[in-house]
Design brief:
By secondary structure, the protein is mainly β. The protein folds into 2 domains: about 55 residues, no CATH class; about 70 residues, Roll (SH3 type barrels). Helix content is about 5%, strand content about 40%. The strands form 3 sheets. A 4-stranded antiparallel sheet has the order 3-2-1-4, with no helix packed on it. The chain has a 4-stranded mixed sheet with strand order 6-5-11-10, with no helix packed on it. Strands 7-8-9 form a 3-stranded antiparallel sheet, with no helix packed on it. The mean pLDDT is about 80.
């Protein structure tokens, strides 16, 4: 990608951001430089992305810094999460690569929750039944 700068429309202002990484096909996930917290990222989510006309490249010239590393738990997108105490929680909508670890996003009781994906919390993964069995810390689902 020749020009790794994009502009986001934030309350009517065109704010420049530099793209650190791009992941996904179709609907892409951009990692922006200096956006280092979930709160800031969520504030920018679904904003209109703008480019200057001179920055647009012909199709054959387009090149994106696509992350070739795959997420360890990306394959469990669409799996049902079953907690040891709470039972069935919800279906994993997406696996995100956060600075500390991978996180699963899912709907629980009408709101979006984030579940850390690591060996300490995941008891087992049943690929046939498409279920992830976990032992989640008390209060995690209340956050």
């Amino acid at each position: 990608m020749k020009n790794e700068r994009i502009f986001l429309d934030v309350r009517g202002s065109k704010i420049p951001y530099f793209v650190a990484n791009v992941r996904g096909k179709g609907e892409m996930i951009l990692q922006l430089e200096e956006v280092d917290s979930l709160e800031v990222a969520q504030g920018l989510q679904s904003r209109e992305v703008l480019l200057r006309r001179q920055d647009l490249l012909a199709g054959h010239e387009r090149e994106l810094p696509i992350d070739t590393e795959t997420l360890v738990y990306e394959r469990i997108t669409g799996y049902q999460v079953v907690d040891k105490t709470a039972g069935e929680i919800g279906v994993i909508e997406e696996v995100l690569d956060m600075p500390q670890q991978e996180m699963a996003t899912l709907k629980y009781k009408g709101r979006e929750v984030f579940i850390p994906l690591n060996e300490r919390l995941i008891l087992s993964i049943d690929d046939t039944a498409r279920k992830v069995y976990c032992d989640l810390p008390d209060g995690l689902l209340d956050v």
